[in-house]
Automatic annotation (TrEMBL):
Keyword vocabulary terms for this entry: Cell outer membrane, Membrane, Signal, Transmembrane, Transmembrane beta strand
Organism ancestry: Bacteria, Pseudomonadati, Pseudomonadota, Alphaproteobacteria, Sphingomonadales
Coiled coil stretches, renumbered: none
Subcellular locations according to the entry: Cell outer membrane
Signal peptide residue numbers: 1-27
The protein, known as: Outer membrane protein transport protein
InterPro entries reported in the protein's UniProt record: OMPP1/FadL/TodX
The keyword Chloroplast is assigned to this record: no
Length: 421
């Protein structure tokens, strides 16, 4: 590498990829994280039109245009509370089940920004997506003959080099190439192999890896000293199949990352106060393994087949608002709120015992201390109160009928460190 900062970026990148790959990510906006960057997380995840650090490239690749050289490192401690209650089942599944056999999780993130000219800026970001993780030490499917812990573990790491170009004063466009490394493991669902097109590649096959690629584009504009706007579009991230789970996921193990897009606005009514609001759409239903309902199973289409059964997730719209206030030249406080639609219909809760990504409300706080002219330290905390989706016609008669209610709550806190280079 030609420069010391680039060496730092390479070493940090390798360390963060290894750490993210060993830690399962969690569900917030479905299975997308509710925010990136310690500052953005303290503002409820709002940041499409309000870049505050290098992680802004993940929200909107255009927003890093004109940003000075910097390095950002963050770590989040994530504690989900997930589980299920089954009632009215004629096959012995009734009971309350705790899916918290694995907790807590450590989620790092990294960003490096470097101007290449007055108009062109480069960034490299590495971050984990949401994900799905459950670990039921008391197996909900034991009465069917299931053995061991039941659960799933999805890990996703995104590596995104970005270029942003300021084509007019205060107005820029940006593009990110997105590389995906993901892993998946399922266990304890042996009784359902009879409904699979490939029973040997359905459950208890260890962790399988998959790789993919996509892109993100964005626009950022400062309309005046008070108002800025932004928008982004992220393509489907096309990934190769999970071969070890070709009998579980639709389309022979397919698991792409769904398309998402959104827009935001930021207001700076005074020198000390900033307000931001975002709206985002995530199209889960376009990915067969996530969006297909369970119903095809009972029309003769097995798990793993083309257009086979999935988790039945709906598309969601997400709203985020946040504010920060400079108490002094060295100390800033912030707060935010996010609201996500629930992707899991009441009719699809049975399979989603394994993936109850149903939280909707996110409340956040945060603060930044400018330790020196070059170093800043940011802390944040998030609480997503428990949300329960009560099943309605959720357990098919073939599996004893009744209802599965699934729930999820989340608590997280973390630190971010920013260094001007």
């Amino acid at each position: 590498m030609p420069t010391s900062p680039m060496r730092i970026a390479a070493l940090a990148s390798a360390a963060l990829i290894a750490t993210l790959a060993s830690n399962p990510a969690q569900a917030t906006d479905g299975y997308f994280l509710n925010g990136v960057g310690a500052k953005g997380k303290g503002m409820g995840g709002a940041g499409i039109a309000y870049p505050q650090d290098g992680m802004a490239a993940v929200n909107n690749p255009a927003s890093i245009a004109g940003m000075e050289s910097r390095l950002d490192l963050g770590v989040e401690i994530f504690v989900p509370d997930r589980g299920a209650d089954i009632s009215g089942n004629g096959a012995g599944l009734n009971g309350s089940y705790d899916g918290n056999g694995s907790n807590p999780f450590v989620l790092p993130e990294f960003a490096y920004v470097r101007p290449l000219s007055n108009d062109l800026t480069f960034a490299l970001t590495i971050n984990g997506n949401g994900g799905m993780n459950t670990d039921y030490e008391t197996n909900p499917f034991a009465s069917f003959g299931a053995q061991g812990d039941a659960g799933v573990d999805l890990k996703q790491v995104f590596i995104s080099p970005t270029l942003a170009y300021e084509f007019a004063e205060g107005h820029s466009v940006g593009v990110s190439a997105i590389g995906l490394v993901q892993g998946f493991r399922a266990s304890g669902i042996q009784p359902f192999t009879a409904a699979s097109s490939d029973p040997a590649n359905f459950t208890d096959r260890g962790t399988d890896a998959s790789f993919g690629a996509g892109f993100r584009v964005g626009y950022y504009g400062e309309l005046n000293d008070v108002v800025s706007i932004g928008a982004f579009y992220q393509s489907t991230i096309w990934a190769d199949e999970f071969d070890k789970y070709a009998g579980l996921f639709a389309d022979q193990g397919g698991f792409d990352v769904p398309t998402s897009y959104g827009a935001g606005i930021a207001l700076h009514p005074t020198d000390r106060l900033s307000l931001a609001a975002d709206v985002k759409r995530i199209e889960y239903s376009d990915v067969g393994s996530v969006g297909n309902p369970l119903a095809p199973l009972f029309s003769g289409v097995p798990f793993g087949a083309t257009d086979g059964p999935g988790f039945g997730w709906d598309d969601v719209t997400v709203f985020k608002v946040g504010a920060d206030y400079d108490v002094s030249d060295r100390f800033t406080v912030r707060a935010g709120y996010g609201r996500s639609e629930n992707p899991v219909p009441q009719s699809e809760t049975f399979l989603n015992i394994l993936a109850p990504g149903v939280v909707q409300d996110h409340f956040t706080v945060g603060a930044t201390w400018q330790a020196s002219d070059r170093i800043e330290i940011t802390g944040f905390a998030m609480r997503a109160p428990r949300n329960t989706v009560e099943g309605s016609g959720s357990i098919p008669v073939n599996y004893g009928g009744g209802e599965a209610d699934v729930y999820l709550a989340e608590t997280s806190f973390g630190l971010g460190f920013g260094l001007e280079l």
